Amino acid sequence: MRFVALVVAALIATAHAQVTIEYWHINSATFGAQAVTQAVAAFEAEHPDIRVIERFQEGSYGGLLTNLQAAIAAGRPPAVAQIGYNFRLFAFNELPHVPIDTFSDRDDYAAFIDAFIPGMLRLGTDEAGVLRAVPFAVSVPMLYYNADLFREAGLDPDAPPATWAEVREAAKTIREATGRFGIGIQISNSNNWVPQGLIESNGGEILDAEGRIAVDGPEVVEVYEFWQALALEDGTLPVVTDAEQEQAFLAGQLGMYIRTSASLANYTAQSNFDMRTAMFPTWGDKPRSIPSGGNALFVFASDPAEQQAAFEFMSFLVSREGQTIWVRDTGYLPVADGVADDPAFLADFFAENPLIAPAVEQLPDAVAWLPLPGERGFEAEQALIGAREAILNGAPVAETLTRTAAQMRELLGQ
User: Fold this and answer.
1) Residues 188/168, Cβ–Cβ less than 8 Å
2) Distance between alpha carbon 338 and the CA centroid of its chain, in Å?
3) Which of 4, 5, 318, 343 has a CA-to-CA distance to 63 between 20 and 30 Å?
C-alpha cells in the first residue's frame, strides 16, 4: 500500500508540475494541420511536463492577428502564435511580446541560435538587432500545372511556361482546346504576397526606396492590366475566391496555378492527375524577385513557466526533427541548417520528391515579404486587395491604382 501511495503521490506531483501552453496557427486540414498534430505529439512525448493545446485560426495571418489583438486586450493571449512575415514589423512595434533574446541566459540558447541556416534569423530580427521572433515557415510561390491537360491541349508537359507571355499563350490554348480555365493566381483577403512577386519581378514596387507607396507606377499598372486581361479579355482566369481556384485545380478544371510551395504535400496527396511544378514565371528577361512567405513564432505568455515552456516548444519546431515533420507534410522549406542534406532527416525526401526542386532552385531569387509600416499598415494592405478585386471585375486599372495609391499614402501618413 505504501508503494501505491508513493506512486499516486508522484503522479499527482507530476500533474501539478505540468505546464499547459496554447499555440495559435493558420494550418487548416488541407494546409499543414497534420504536421501540427504530429509535431505536438512528438514534442509532448519528449516533454511530458508540457502540454500544448493547438488552436487553428480562421482567416490566415490577418484573421489570426485580429483574434490575437482581441485576446491580448482581454488578457488571455496564447503562449505562442504564428505571425506572417508581412506583419512582423507591426508585431515588433505594436504587440506586447517576449523577445527571443530574453532567453539568452539559457544553457541551450547558443546551440539554438547556431542551428539555423545562416541569415535565416534576420526574418525575426528588428532594426536594432534584437531577435524578437523565431523564423519557422519559409515558402515561395511557384507554378503548379496539370500535365494531363497540357497533353489534351496539345502542349508539351515537359516544357512548362517560363515567362508570363508563355503562360498567357498556354492558358489560351488550354481554354480553346479543352474548355477549361488555363491559369489561376493565388489571392488572399489579408495580404498581397503573390502580387508582390508579380510586381517586383516586373521591376515595380509597392514601396519605393524612400518607403513611399508606389503602386501607381507604370510597372505595377502593367502587371494589373495583364492580370485583368487574363480574366476579362482572354477568359482564361476564373474570377472566383482562392478556395474556388484551388478546388478547380484539384478537380482538373484549371490548367495552371500560381501557388505557395507550402501546398505541395496536400496537392500531391489530393490530385488524381499528372501534377507537376515549375519555377515562378518571369517577365521576359527581367530577373525573378519573389517574396519568401511563411511566418515567425512569437511568444506572448506572461507567466515565466509558460514562457520557458514556449521556448522549449519553439526549439523543437525548428529542430531537425521538428523541421522534418513540418517539411514532409507541407511543402515549406527548412530553416534548420543541414537538415536537407542529412540522410537521417530530409536528404532522402528531397531526392525522392522532385516536385519541390523548383522551390529550392528559386531560393536565391527570394526577398523579404514586404510589411507595410505603421499602425494602419494592415488597412493599407487591405486597400491594395480591394483594388485587385475591383480590377478583376472590370475597373479601369490606372485610375484604380492611382486612387488606391493616394488612399494608402493617407493611411500611412505620407
Assistant:
1) no
2) 22
3) 318
Mean pLDDT of 171-186: 98
Read off the pLDDT of each residue in 65-81 and give the average, rounded to a whole number: 97
Exposed / middle / buried, residue 394 (Cβ in 10 Å: 0-12, 13-18, 19+)? exposed
For the chain, the structural domain boundaries read: 19-139+292-368, 141-290+373-411
pLDDT recorded at residue 8: 47
State CA 84 to chain mean position distance: 7
**Distance between CA atoms of residues 52 and 73, nearest Å:** 22
DSSP state of 209: T
Backbone φ/ψ region at 179: left (φ over 0), alpha (ψ -120 to 50), beta: left
Fold adopted by 19-139+292-368: D-Maltodextrin-Binding Protein; domain 2 (3.40.190)
SS3 (DSSP) at 291: strand
pLDDT digit string, tens, across residues 274-331: 999 999 999 999 999 999 889 999 999 999 999 999 999 999 999 999 999 999 988 8
Q: Which residue is it, cell 536528404?
A: 347
Strand partners, 141: 260
Residue 279 corresponds to which cell in the numbers above? 519555377
Average pLDDT along the chain = 93
Count CA atoms closer than 13 A to 268's CA, side-chain side: 16
**Domain spanning 141-290+373-411, CATH architecture:** 3-Layer(aba) Sandwich (3.40)
- % residues pLDDT > 70 (the chain): 96
Fold agreement between 19-139+292-368 and 141-290+373-411? yes
